[in-house]
Amino acid sequence: MLDSRISDSVVDYAISLGADFAELFIERNQVSTVATLSNEVQAVRSGIDFGIGIRLVYGFKVLYGYTNKTNEQELKRIITELATKDLRDPITQKVNFDYRQPTDHHPAVETLTVDAGIESKIAYLLAADQSARAASNMISQTSGSCLQREQHIELFNSEGLHTEDTRNYIRASLTAYASDGGEQATGSWNDGGLRGWEIKDDINAEKTGEEAARQALVNLSAKACPSGRMPVVLGNGFGGVIFHEACGHLLETTAVAKKASVFHDQMGEMIASPVVSAVDDGTMSNEWGSINIDDEGLETQRTQLIKDGKLTNFLADRIGAAQTGYERTGSGRRQSYHFAPASRMRNTFIEPGDAELDDMISSIDKGIYAPHMGGGSVQPGTGEFNFAVQEGYYVENGKIQHPVKAATLISTGPAVLKEISMIGKDFSLACGMCGSVSGAVPTTVGQATLKVDDILVGGNA
Questions:
Q1: CA nearest 341: which of 174, 157, 183, 187?
Q2: How far is residue 105's CA from residue 93's CA, in Å, rounded to a whole number?
Q3: Which of 139, 209, 298, 355 could join 128 in a cystine, given CB atoms 3.0 to 4.6 angstroms apart?
């Protein structure tokens, strides 16, 4: 995408101004979105964005700028402005570029370059809508979306790296709205991955509609949730969002280097129950949060974060590794060329155990079963969180009694890790978007159903 002669001259110029490290991140991003409202097409959008991010490093200081222009003079002008206050004689020498083509572990067939597949996506969303509304006359409306993205990146840096990669993302979702005339409730379902629209052969529109409607109808009939400290069984898949938000961010060197994480000095210590082992894995085939290389050009990897309750690793990008001394983990990620990279999660999950759901439920005197979690808020430095339960049930005397609404889970990541006593076998993953200092990136969360022995539940009963 960028002439290597221009890249060579520009990176050489950055090093001549005394930078310890210089990098060009070139990106071409193509997006297509189809949106429906009930049985009508609401919008069909597409677009292409192109740009170049320029990063200079002086010690631990990062200078960053970007442009949509590719000419050499403009790129050097930006470098001059970035380096104005840090100019010094050269102290490093640029290495000649050595092109490296990463292995593609995530093949895609029906990409945007081939065909946007608009008619097929519309048919899928309308079939999901029909399935949802056929479930009950109380399903008043649905909203559907199918997002496809093709991102091509190219990197040049002063250590001689020249590499490129193409990433294809696809995600289809439906939200159903149920109403009894007085109250309204919602339910949703989505599927996605690092692949093309061929995912349609592995997902089912009828199932998507039925599941979204089922959740909405359950929530419509739900009773007020009791409040207080009690045990909670968290469902698989998106239940892992609590670990991601309340614990995962505390294991990124973005926080660790600043000592803004409660775990910054606990490497090798027991930070969780012995039944907990957690992983961040960028190598999983065709998963939403996977990558071949990170946004610094390093091959991604599987990183064991917690093993049998013991903290074993952090997620480190280039700067985080330099600041903390921990090895880079192929976790340097960014939303686009507008952002400098930072240490970020990929596919983050708690590994499965061998417990049975029935045993978890039967062990509860009074508590909550939350098979599906919603959104929430987290305090980054401490991991304090407040998460909504999207679908929940009250449990008493070891049996599920009735659905509950307006339930929230309140605690801290470090506290919850130590309260996990049972982990099931029904491991699954779910797609999400994670926002942080380097923008919003595709990430996957996951776990098997697990039991937290003690957590504060907020409710209005």
A1: 157
A2: 34
A3: 209
Closest CA to 52 of 23, 9, 80, 81: 23
Backbone angles phi, psi at 293, to 5 degrees: -130, 155
Q: How many angstroms separate the CA atoms of 313 and 252, rounded? A: 9
Q: Nearest 5°: phi and psi at 218?
A: -60, -45
* Nearest-angstrom CA–CA distance, 29 and 50: 6
* E strand segments, 323-427: 332-333, 342-343, 347-350, 366-379, 384-396, 399-405, 408-412, 420-423
Measured CA to CA, the distance from residue 297 to residue 216 in angstroms comes to 43
Is 106:292 a contact under the CB 8 Å cutoff? yes
- Residue 132's CB is within 10 A of a number of other CB atoms, namely 31
Going by C-beta distance under 8 Å and a sequence separation of 6 or more, which residues neighbour residue 435? none
**Tens of pLDDT along 188-239?**
999 999 999 999 999 999 999 999 999 999 999 999 999 999 999 999 999 9
CA angle 196, 198, 200 (to 5 degrees): 115
Q: Which two tokens stand for residue 113?
A: 């370059």
Phi and psi at 128, nearest 5°, equal -65, -40
Q: E strands, 59-138, where?
A: 61-67, 98-100
Strands 408-412 and 384-396: antiparallel
Query: How far is the C-alpha of 327 from the C-alpha of 315, rounded, in Å?
Result: 9
pLDDT in tens, 233-264: 999 999 999 999 999 999 999 999 999 999 99
Closest CA relative to residue 278, chosen from 248, 254, 257, 236: 248
Are 30 and 50 contacting, i.e. CB atoms less than 8 angstroms apart?
no
Phi and psi at residue 70, to the nearest 5°? -110, 0
- In this predicted model, what pLDDT tens digit does every residue of 40-81 receive, in sequence order? 999 999 999 999 999 999 999 999 999 999 999 999 999 999
Q: How many CA atoms lie within 13 A of 344 on its CB side?
A: 27
Give mean pLDDT, residues 428-455. Answer: 97
Q: 35: exposed, middle or buried (C-beta count within 10 Å: 0-12, 13-18, 19+)?
A: middle
State how far the Cα of 171 lies from the Cα of 192, in Å rounded to an integer. Answer: 4
SS3 (DSSP) at 218 = helix
Return the structure tokens found at 386.
């407040």
Residue 306: other Cβ atoms inside 10 A? 24
Q: What's the burial of 265, exposed, middle or buried (CB within 10 Å: 0-12/13-18/19+)?
A: exposed
User: Would you list the DSSP string of 93-110?
Assistant: -PPPPEEE----SS--SS
Structure tokens at 261: 């994480």
Question: In the chain, what is the greatest distance between 2 CA atoms, to the nearest angstrom?
Answer: 74
Determine if the pTM surpasses 0.90: yes
